[in-house]
Amino acid sequence: MKKLKRKELESYLQQVDGFENPKLVLEQYPTRPHIAACMLYTIHTTYDDIEDKLIADLGCGCGVLSIGAAMLGAGLCVGFDLDEDALEIFKANVEEFELTNVDMIQCNVCSLPSDKMLKRFDTVIMNPPFGTKYNKGLDMTFLKTALQIAREAVYSLHKTSTRENLDMTYQHHSSFIRRSRLISKWTSFAFLLVDF
Ligand SMILES: C[S@@+](CC[C@H](N)C(=O)[O-])C[C@H]1O[C@@H](n2cnc3c(N)ncnc32)[C@H](O)[C@@H]1O
Predict the structure, then answer these.
(1) Which of 116, 120, 125 is nearest to 58 (CA)?
(2) Mean pLDDT of successive 10-residue segments in the chain (196 residues)?
(3) Closest-CA residue to 18 (of 100, 69, 101, 90)
(4) Closest atom, ligand 1, to C-alpha of 60
(5) What sections of the protein cross the membrane (predicted)?
(6) 62, 111, 117, 182: which is deepest, by most CB within 10 A?
(7) Residues ≥6 apart with Cβ < 8 Å to 164
(8) Ordered structural domains, the chain, with CATH
(9) 168 φ, ψ (degrees, to nearest 5)
(10) How far apart are the CA of 26 and the centre of ligand 1, in A?
């Protein structure tokens, strides 16, 4: 696979179709191509958590993160989302880019049997619902699931204002992940890296 530069990745991600009629209740706002490209490129080049890895994208929506990870050489990236309409667009995006290392599953991430999926994925990437108005606490449920199903690393975008809560969730549920955690500011988000 050709090595992509960050700018090239970003310009590919600009061609990914987004939500046609975003559902507020599901917090369907897409990750902007610039943020997605920066996040994925860092995960790939600094932490080596994409190439040949089995990756889960929780709340994948129309697939911008999964598609980016696939372009950077993921072994397989599996997207999980509740919404059939979003997954239809995701599927069309994958076909448009002719990617063979992407799959998707329609499901509620909160009901994933995380015991059966314990440590099944090398890496989890996600831009989860922020768990605001309609879905209080959903961001932490996604994080908890991610920490259970990941073998090596979890990368997740969150609102900076939830940092304290993130810290607590991480302390409670990170026993499966062995090493350090690093939080840094990413525009208006906290960018949480949990690496092995
Ligand atoms: C902030 S959007 C992110 C979409 C996409 N990952 C991206 O980065 O552009 C959150 C996604 O989570 C999905 N979602 C919300 N609640 C969910 C749940 N309980 N289970 C699975 N997916 C859910 C929404 O349908 C939406 O696609």
Answers:
(1) 125
(2) 88 98 92 92 90 97 98 98 98 98 97 85 91 82 89 82 68 50 42 49
(3) 90
(4) 6
(5) none
(6) 62
(7) none
(8) 35-110+137-195 (3.40.50.150)
(9) -65, -45
(10) 6
What spacing in Å lies between the alpha carbon of 168 and ligand 1's midpoint?
Answer: 22
Q: Is 110 in the pocket of ligand 1 (CB under 6 A)?
A: yes
The one-character DSSP state at 44 is H
Summarised one tens digit per residue, pLDDT across range 121-170 is: 999 999 999 877 778 889 889 988 998 898 888 888 887 777 667 666 66
Provide long-range contacts, Cβ within 8 A and 24+ apart, for 95-101: 96/15, 96/17, 97/12, 97/67, 97/70, 97/71, 99/67, 99/70, 99/71, 101/70, 101/74, 101/75, 101/76, 101/77
Please give the number of the atom of ligand 1 that sits closest to the Cα of 18: 9
| Separation of CA 58 and ligand 1 centre (Å) | 7
pLDDT digits 0-9 by tens, 160-173: 777 667 666 666 66
Of 98, 86, 92, give the one whose Cα is nearest residue 127. 86
Ligand 1 pocket, mutate which of 82, 110, 144 (most atoms under 8 A from CB): 82
Query: Would you say the CB of residue 145 lies under 6 angstroms from ligand 1?
Result: no
Mean pLDDT over each residue of the chain, to the nearest integer: 85
Which residues, including other chains, have CB under 8 Å from residue 106's CB and lie 6 or more apart? 81, 82, 83, 84, 87
